[in-house]
């Protein structure tokens, strides 16, 4: 990751970066001297642990507590980000809100909140940090298999993620004009708090099944996700635009 370019202070912004996949990406993209901006809404203790891990690797972690699920909230976070860096090298959206249960039984207000966090916040955040994006900037949205197929009790996450994947395609075309790019990374199931919230009774079996079905002989891990995000932020991905990278070890190909 670029720390400075022609005297311009660069940064990495992870939305929903205090735990799970977000934390793994925040820590995984840390290099000595880099600035990692961690947006979160959960417990401060989780964010502070992410900060500690970033600092252990020689990075500077800036914690940005705030709700990006509204234009106003995203604008406030963007203001804090702009006070820390001149340009964003990478923006990764990992924020998630779960409402488990069948779609037909979903509480309208709770489901709307899930859509705001899981999809709309991505758009709001990219709009808000637009002045900090430029040539070489990479925007990444973390999606999942549930955006493309109907998983039981997963509609509050899967449907908004499908919406956000569509946002990425449109944003990719618009960001290309300034040399920035937008893509999706869609890994198989991970042992995260959100996954456990949706599948509290059988998450272990689901994770084991995902590993068993992989022709590659193992489950996709957090390190695999980090490496794909790292690639998307590299010059080698300069012409990769609006794509969904399915990170599954060929599981979906094997049926």
UniProtKB/TrEMBL annotation:
InterPro entries referenced in this protein's UniProt entry, alphabetically: NAD(P)-bd_dom_sf, SDR_fam
Keywords tagged on the record: Oxidoreductase
Pfam families on file: adh_short_C2
Oxidoreductase in keyword set: yes
Gene3D superfamilies in alphabetical order: NAD(P)-binding Rossmann-like Domain
PANTHER family reported in the protein's UniProt record: OXIDOREDUCTASE, SHORT-CHAIN DEHYDROGENASE/REDUCTASE FAMILY (AFU_ORTHOLOGUE AFUA_5G02870) (PTHR43639), SHORT-CHAIN DEHYDROGENASE_REDUCTASE FAMILY PROTEIN (PTHR43639:SF1)
Record family assignment: Belongs to the short-chain dehydrogenases/reductases (SDR) family.
Name of the protein described by the UniProt record: SDR family oxidoreductase
């Amino acid at each position: 990751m670029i720390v400075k370019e022609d005297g311009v202070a660069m940064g990495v912004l992870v939305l929903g970066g205090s735990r799970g996949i977000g934390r793994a990406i925040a820590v995984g993209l840390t290099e000595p001297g880099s600035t990692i901006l961690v947006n979160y809404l959960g417990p401060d203790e989780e964010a502070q642990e992410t900060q500690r891990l970033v600092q252990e690797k020689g990075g500077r972690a800036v914690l940005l507590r705030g709700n990006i699920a509204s234009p106003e909230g995203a604008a406030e976070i963007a203001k804090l980000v702009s006070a820390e860096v001149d340009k964003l090298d990478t923006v990764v959206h990992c924020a998630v809100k779960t409402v488990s249960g069948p779609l037909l039984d979903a509480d309208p207000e709770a489901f709307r909140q899930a859509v705001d966090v899981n999809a709309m916040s991505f758009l709001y955040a990219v709009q808000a940090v637009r002045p900090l994006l430029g040539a070489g900037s990479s925007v990444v949205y973390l999606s999942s298999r549930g955006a493309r197929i109907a998983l039981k009790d997963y509609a509050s996450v899967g449907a908004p993620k499908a919406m956000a994947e569509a946002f990425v395609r449109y944003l990719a075309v618009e960001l290309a004009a300034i040399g920035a790019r937008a893509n999706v990374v869609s890994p198989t199931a991970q042992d995260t708090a959100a996954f456990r919230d949706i599948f509290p009774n059988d998450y272990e079996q689901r994770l084991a099944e995902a590993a068993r079905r992989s022709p590659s002989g193992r489950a996709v891990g957090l390190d695999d996700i980090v490496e794909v995000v790292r690639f998307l932020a590299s010059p080698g991905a300069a012409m990769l635009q609006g794509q969904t990278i399915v990170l599954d070890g060929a599981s979906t190909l094997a049926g």
